[in-house]
Amino acid sequence: MARMTVGERREALIEAAHQVIADHGVEGATTRRVCAQAQMPLASFHYAFESRMALLAAVIDQGIPRDLLSLADEIRENTPADGLRGVEREVTESLQNLYNLMVVDSGRLQATVSLALYSHNNPELREAGRQMWNRLCAIAATTLASIAGQHGTAWIVDPDDLGPLLIAATNAITMTFLTTGDPTTTQHVVDGTVRWMMSYAVLDSIAEPATG
């Protein structure tokens, strides 16, 4: 077996930690259990991370699915402007992509939710949890601004302020799926979120964004 670099070892431990947290919870994610999941000796752990908390912080840092990071880029330049219908289509596709990620990798999402809650009560991880929230909100704001610009529309609330509301709504979708495991119920929440988001969308010529 080829010798692993430090970077490769870190990635393997992070991926293993996601799975262990999904299966055993954050408290159950011991370094021994994570190393066993990654199929590497316990003694090699400290070549990659100085502590268990450092590993958990890295897991939080990579808690946002990589596919989600590219959602804003999926607003293609050759997509024709289509007004409010285009906005509804793009919002629907973005939320549907998120739902598809849940189905494919529900364990990662479950681990991310568990870590977010754990970080709130753990001073060593609180900042990492806050940064994850800020990144999610930034992704949402960028996506919303891209959608509006593509279709000649605007939001009646600034995208930077609307982004956190969208992330809160996606959290509701995530919890519905993780709690019920019911595609029909989850899809109902997705559809309701689209209708709610469209209540903020207007044609650009009549937009009067709210100010603080």
TrEMBL record:
Q: Does the keyword section mention Magnesium?
A: no
Q: List, alphabetically, the InterPro entries matched.
A: Homeodomain-like_sf, HTH-type_TetR-like_transc_reg, HTH_TetR
Q: Which UniProt keywords apply?
A: DNA-binding
* Superkingdom in the source lineage: Bacteria
Keyword Signal, does the record have it? no
Name of one Pfam family that matches: TetR_N
User: Ranges for the HTH tetR-type domain?
Assistant: 7-67
Membrane-spanning segments = none
Q: Which residues bind DNA?
A: 30-49
Task: Please give the name of this protein.
Answer: HTH tetR-type domain-containing protein
The species this protein was found in: Gordonia defluvii
